[in-house]
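Structure Section — protein described below
Tokens — whole-number codes for backbone shape
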Amino acid sequence: VQLQASGGGLVQAGGSLRLSCAASGRTFSSNSLGWLRQAPGKEREFVATISWKNDVTTWYADSVKGRFTISRGNAENTVYLQMNSLKPEDTAVYYCAVYDSGAVYHIGSYTHWGQGTQVTVSS
């Protein structure tokens, strides 16, 4: 499975961006995908995850709750991250990855990381 993240860019504070994550390769059987990010000089951190194993369930980091929305596209292998009211502290490389097991907030719970897309928020 390969994951391709796209949609990053430069935006002013208060602006919006929508990131996309597309899965390809072998039959994509996972039912949970997440977005994670890494700011310069910092460790990777959880942003949001969506699961559609039964009902759709979402989780968000406290820092993005109310501003970011994770959703699944019409194509089963596509997940989006709508980011509104962006802040300079949201500047980071954003990655999508498959949620495997364990706590959704833990980076080690994710596999098949994509290559990342840069998001830069200017003040």
